[in-house]
Design a protein that fits this description.
This protein is α+β, with helices and mostly antiparallel strands. The protein has 7 helices and 17 strands. Helix content is 21%, strand content 39%. The strands form 2 sheets. The chain has a 10-stranded antiparallel β-barrel with strand order 4-5-6-7-10-11-12-14-15-16. A hairpin with a 5-residue loop joins strand 10 and strand 11.
């Protein structure tokens, strides 16, 4: 096993609808045995090469990100058991697909890396790349054969200026639901509006539905798994979705992120590659593409620090409420052909209200299922556009 040096943990800002702090100082040097590069590339001379933009100065393209430091992590040595199960000979296609999806669960060091690679607007100038890290637990919520639900949660240990560690700090993150041969899905239309649409030729495909930290819909897309020579890869069809927080907080010139996703299972985790186009979609039907970006999210299994116990403790107190939230959204998605969401209600964003309520449950020893369900239903109802 190899000990990895300190890294910035800024995924919290990325997913909690808060802009990450700018990285103004270089990170500490890695230990000699480090298995990964430092959180941001080392300083380069003026005119040094930056991926896809070799003639721009390094300072112009220095990645934006965060400066919060996390504790050391230990990477898994060898392959995960889920990887070994996936390689078992003689499996039919459906079962191998299932095992690939189940292999997404685990405890990970996660990195998020995005760079604009193509400009389609006049006098285009690329924005600075985005780079952040975090530690994340991915837990299996449901497995019903042709339906698999996975809950992501950030579990983080922070180091202060004195080198002292605090944590674990747990924050419910996004969720992904996989459905085999689904016949319909929710397609993002822009302007915080989703519309039900049929899945074309669903035979053999899986839809991946992705939900925000507050369990509201983000995007859903169909795709197929392929398995060949030890490579298990899911490739999506084209998928429109809302701007991620890393873009929404700094860009106002487009309103839809559209692209194709690839998920590849590795011996120690998985990699999510995104080929995204930045689109301004107007209500009059006109469309204008501004650019294209490449994104790579890497999930690498760690053995320390332990993440699952902290998530389990949080989930034991809050999971019934979050199930009420999921069930309420499930009814909305089933009953409505189209729906839109408000940005705020009573001056607050949706995730704020849910998280405040869950925080109270975590601190309380008294259960009140009726109040939980009522709060979930009323909160979501307040954000739905009539």
């Amino acid at each position: 096993m190899k000990l990895v040096s300190l890294f910035p943990i800024v995924a919290l800002g990325l997913c909690l609808h808060a802009r990450a702090q700018e990285n103004t100082t270089p990170p500490p040097a890695p230990a000699p045995e480090a298995a990964a590069p430092p959180a941001t590339p080392p300083p380069a001379p003026a005119g040094g090469h930056v991926f896809a933009w070799p003639f721009m100065s390094w300072e112009e393209m220095k990645p934006r990100g965060g400066s919060t430091k996390g504790s050391e992590v230990t990477l898994l040595s060898g392959a995960k058991e889920s990887w070994n199960r996936l390689q078992q000979p003689g499996l039919d296609k459906f079962e191998r697909d299932r095992r690939a999806i189940l292999a997404l669960a685990g405890n990970y060091r996660v990195s998020f890396d995005f760079t604009e690679i193509v400009g389609l607007a006049e006098n285009f100038k690329p924005t600075r790349p985005y780079f952040s890290w975090g530690t994340e637990n991915v837990t299996l919520l449901e497995d019903k054969g042709g339906f698999i639900s996975l809950q992501h949660s950030l579990v983080m240990y922070f180091k202060d200026e004195k080198g002292e560690t605090s944590g674990p700090h747990v924050m419910k993150h996004w969720r992904q639901d996989w459905t085999y041969e689904d016949t319909e899905m929710q397609v993002y239309q822009g302007d915080m509006t989703w519309k039900k649409a049929p899945v074309e030729s669903p035979q053999g495909k899986w839809t991946q539905a992705v939900f925000q930290v507050d369990d509201s819909p983000r995007y859903e897309v169909a795709g197929a798994w392929t398995h060949d020579g030890g490579l298990s890869l899911w490739r999506s069809e084209n998928c429109p979705r809302p701007l991620p927080r890393r873009e929404f907080s700094v860009r106002k010139d487009y309103n839809v992120l559209e692209g194709i996703h690839e998920i590849t299972i590795t011996p120690n985790g998985w990699v999510h590659v995104q080929n995204n186009r930045k689109l301004q979609a107007n209500k009059d039907g006109s469309r204008k593409y501004l650019g294209q970006e490449l994104g790579v999210d890497r999930y690498e299994e760690i053995t320390s620090p332990e993440l699952a116990p902290a998530f389990d403790a949080y989930w034991a107190k809050t999971n019934t409420y979050w199930k009420d939230v999921r069930d309420t959204w499930g009814k909305v998605l089933k009953d409505k052909e189209t729906f839109s969401l408000k940005d705020t209600y009573d001056g607050k964003q949706l995730f704020m209200i849910h998280f405040e309520y869950a925080d109270g449950l975590e601190k309380s020893d008294k259960a009140n299922p009726e109040a939980d369900l009522k709060h979930a239903q009323e909160t979501i109802g307040n954000f739905l556009q009539s």
